[in-house]
Design a protein that fits this description.
The protein is an alpha/beta fold and 368 residues long. The protein folds into 2 domains: 132 residues, 3-Layer(aba) Sandwich (Oxidized Rhodanese, domain 1); 221 residues, Rossmann fold (3-Layer(aba) Sandwich), CATH 3.40.50. Helix content is 33%, strand content 22%. The strands form 3 sheets. The protein has a 7-stranded mixed sheet. Strands 3-1-4-5 form a 4-stranded parallel sheet, sandwiched between helices. The chain has a two-stranded antiparallel ribbon with strand order 2-6. Strand 8, helix 8 and strand 9 form a beta-alpha-beta unit. Helix 9 packs parallel to helix 10.
Length: 368
């Protein structure tokens, strides 16, 4: 293996402004000791569990792949290595099954890493006027939050800052955000990276919540910024034959066609639990992505403090793929109708298609 050939791959990547992700598959300890700038560390044995940290499918990616080979090894030797064969299998899997464009694989001999990085520094083209190697554990963020959240966050932050600056008893930077059914936490981490120092990420799955907690130090997010909470967000069973039972906009209703007394108590208990997670008994931002449990809609309305925002986007009829069940699909104009009342001003509403042609609704609204 010719180190200069491998290093040239890195130079080409840097000269292209690091436009796509370079994923360092070495161990966490090796990455911390020294790594190439703007790279993302996902140890090879953790890649299957951390696939959610890759960028969206269809994007270009590349790899720094650890192998073991002595200094006298030739290209023939490299091709015969089991680790080399595994790297090709990984490339083909990501291309064929996940739609990624693998731009290159740069191989680094685990026995001569110091030589590799020294050569990278010494052979630096003078046109590249920057430090190429650094130490530390913080990785480049490759994955993206939901596009609807990304497009709304500037307006939300600007308005919240104005509002909180007018409240002398409240520190301007202290507002509380809730990501409901957060999954693996891409959106919760994005909100925290934006400077929201009190993000509550709620989901029923402890494995997904642990992924969020583990990701915080890797991406330089203070651990106290995101609190992960396991909660059952669906305490009341929805009978598909009676979807109209969960169309109430008020939890206080005693209409037996809506909820039984036991169901009401369970939903009120969930509301109380979610409120208790915030010192102000509510949230300045509530975010829900690709998730629908209709009894949560009035709860969300209750949770938002005056001047706070809701960002909600999920699938709608007609189904073109998953999900298929009506209980998980919004009806035409449903989100807009749910939040069109005296309490909320609708800032933006869309019914559009994702790249895979699944129809989706998006709502951005502010509580008066």
């Amino acid at each position: 293996m010719n180190i200069k050939d491998e290093i040239q791959k890195i130079f080409n990547w840097i000269e292209n402004q690091c436009q796509y992700g370079l994923i360092d598959l070495r161990t966490k300890e090796e990455f911390q000791r020294q790594h190439i700038i703007n790279t993302t560390n996902i140890p090879l044995d953790q890649l299957p569990q951390r696939i959610f940290e890759l960028p969206p499918r269809g994007n270009k990616i590349s790899f720094l792949y650890p192998i073991n080979i002595d200094d006298s090894g030739t290209i023939t030797d490299l091709c015969e290595l089991e680790s080399y064969k595994q790297s090709i299998e990984l490339r083909d899997t990501l291309i064929n099954r996940s739609g990624y464009l693998v731009e290159f694989i740069c191989y680094i001999d685990q026995n001569t890493q110091d030589i590799f990085f020294a050569s990278l520094i010494n052979d630096n083209n003078k046109d590249i006027d920057r430090t190429l190697v650094e130490s530390g554990s913080v990785s480049r963020l490759l994955w993206k939050a939901c596009s609807f959240l990304e497009s709304s966050i500037d307006l939300i932050d600007t308005q919240l800052l104005k509002q909180l600056q007018q409240q002398p008893e409240q520190k301007p930077s202290i507002y509380y955000s809730l990501d409901l059914a957060c999954g693996s936490g891409r959106d919760a981490l994005f909100i925290a990276k934006r400077g929201h120092s009190n993000v509550i990420a709620v989901d029923h799955d402890p494995i997904l919540l642990k992924k969020i907690s583990d990701a915080l130090p890797r991406y330089g997010i203070p651990e106290e910024s995101v609190r992960c909470v396991q909660l059952d967000l669906e305490p009341v069973y929805i009978d598909p034959a009676h979807l109209d039972r969960d169309h109430s906009n008020r939890l206080e209703t005693n209409d037996p066609l809506k909820y039984t007394a036991d169901e009401l108590n369970k939903l009120k208990s969930l509301l109380a639990q979610l409120r208790a997670l915030s010192p102000v008994n509510g949230y300045h931002l509530v975010h829900v992505a690709r998730y629908l449990y209709r009894p949560l809609l009035p709860i969300i309305a209750e949770l938002i403090v005056p001047g706070g925002f809701v960002v909600f986007h999920t699938f709608m009829h007609p189904s073109k793929g998953k999900p298929k069940r009506p209980r998980y699909l919004l009806n035409y104009n449903e989100l807009k109708e749910r939040f069109t009342n005296s309490l909320f001003d609708i800032i933006e509403y869309q019914e559009t298609l994702l790249e895979d042609n699944r129809p989706i609704q998006f709502l951005l609204a502010r509580k008066q």
